[in-house]
From TrEMBL:
Molecular function as annotated in GO: cysteine-S-conjugate beta-lyase activity; pyridoxal phosphate binding
Pfam families on file: Aminotran_1_2
Natural source organism: Proteinivorax hydrogeniformans
Name of the protein in its database record: cysteine-S-conjugate beta-lyase
Family membership noted in the UniProt record: Belongs to the class-II pyridoxal-phosphate-dependent aminotransferase family. MalY/PatB cystathionine beta-lyase subfamily.
Cofactor(s) the protein needs: pyridoxal 5'-phosphate
Keyword match Lyase: yes
InterPro entries: Aminotransferase_I/II_large (IPR004839), C-S_lyase_PatB-like (IPR027619), Class-II_PLP-Dep_Aminotrans (IPR051798), PyrdxlP-dep_Trfase (IPR015424), PyrdxlP-dep_Trfase_major (IPR015421), PyrdxlP-dep_Trfase_small (IPR015422)
Domain Aminotransferase class I/classII large: 29-380
Taxonomy, superkingdom: Bacteria
């Protein structure tokens, strides 16, 4: 746990989370808990691997990438009990550009694509960018967690829907979908010939006893209409290395994705991303296990603090991810959104709920931070509530 207590000064490092926030919101001396990256250094094995590459001094085109594919295959088998073949893997510079390219290939302008709000804001952007129409099937909150509205979904999916972009585990509400839920969703999409693009970038970040299920592993019949999107970026704090892996078990979709990627991604991911991915997928297990324990302790602390000192705030406790969704509709924010209130009165930068298609009374907080950062943020928020 000691490695996660070590403070790393991220200011003046071209960090979006720390340096970008001052420009974006014209504020200073705030606690940034918004962008979904961690305040923890990557595993030492990554740093060592990158140092070796830098010391070698040549950064030409990568060629023999067998060890890269081998690392991805072994990680999926070891952590998810998912046996994949190397030829199913398509490297990409990120999940967002990959999904955008896939949507562009499998849809026509004005086709419809289903998403489930509140959801990662880039889902809206991706669909609009390719000229398609967003069809929203909002999640429903029941008993302190969000669920899929299958009745509403079935009504929507009948009308010229070509694709479903699934967030699994879900950002921002932290749901880890059960196998039963995924089975029902998969059968609906199969029945109506809807391609599922499953964004599983948070698939390693799941708290026990919850278990992530790879969408194609739910039912063999889902293989032919599903594309799985993964990356080491959220798991190991490597977003800036822009490396993702799109995994396509179905032969027909694999051909479509392969042809599209050969047009838009003419080379392999950057050489540093290759080295980092090999290192974390070979050596990252214990680091990840400790990370999950640390983040879950932060969630416990947040829940206890809210229950004790800020009961007017409702926490939707996440089953996965290091993100939490807070409902502040019972707070008198004097006409401000929850985001504005938190920023102006507590000097804490969250993500606004409306950014994700949720209510303005909600915010998303990033708990992949040092506990002392969380403690300070909660004290400032509690003080703001008392003095409003």
């Amino acid at each position: 746990m000691i490695k996660f207590e070590k403070s790393v000064d991220r200011r003046d490092t071209d960090s979006m989370k720390y340096d970008g926030v001052e420009d974006l919101y014209n504020v200073k001396d705030v606690i940034p808990m918004w962008v979904a990256d961690m305040d923890f250094a990557a595993p030492q094995e990554v740093i060592s691997a990158l140092k070796l590459k830098v010391e070698h001094g040549i950064f030409g085109y990568p060629g023999n990438t067998f060890k890269y594919y081998e690392a991805v295959v072994n990680w999926m088998k070891r952590r998810h009990n998912w046996e994949i073949s190397e030829d199913w893997i398509f490297p990409a510079p990120g999940v967002v550009p990959a999904i955008t390219a896939i949507l562009e290939e499998i849809t026509q302008p004005n086709d419809k694509v289903i998403i489930q709000s509140p959801v990662y804001h880039h889902f809206y952007n991706m669909v609009h960018k390719v000229g398609c129409e967003v069809v929203d099937s909002p999640l429903v909150e029941r008993n302190g967690k969000y669920e899929m509205d299958f009745e509403g979904l079935e009504r929507l999916i009948c009308n010229n829907v070509k694709a479903f972009v699934l967030c699994s585990p879900h950002n921002p509400v932290g749901r880890v979908w059960s196998k039963k839920e995924l089975q029902k969703l998969g059968e609906l999409c199969l029945k109506h010939n809807v391609t599922v693009i499953s964004d599983e970038i948070h698939n390693d970040l799941v708290f026990k006893p919850n278990k992530h299920t790879i969408f194609t592993e739910v039912d063999p019949q889902f293989v032919d209409n599903t594309i799985i999107c993964t990356a080491p970026s959220k798991t190991f704090n490597l977003a800036g290395l822009q490396t993702a892996n799109i995994i396509v078990p179905g032969e027909n979709l694999r051909k479509i994705v392969g042809e599209k990627f050969s047009k838009v991604y003419n080379s392999f991911p950057n050489t540093m991303g290759i080295e980092a991915t090999k290192a974390v997928y070979k050596y990252g297990d214990s680091w990840l296990d400790e990370l999950l324990d640390y983040v879950e302790r932060n969630i416990d602390y947040l829940q206890e603090y809210i229950e004790d000192k800020m009961p007017q705030i409702k926490l939707i406790r996440p089953q996965g991810t290091y993100l939490v969704w807070l409902d502040m509709k019972e707070v008198d924010t004097k006409g401000l959104s929850a985001f504005e209130f938190t920023l102006q009165n507590a000097k804490v930068v969250a993500e606004p709920g409306e950014k994700y298609g949720g209510p303005s009374s909600s915010i998303r907080l990033n708990l992949a931070c040092h506990k002392k950062t969380l403690e300070k943020a909660l004290k400032q928020l509690s003080s703001a509530l008392q003095s409003k």
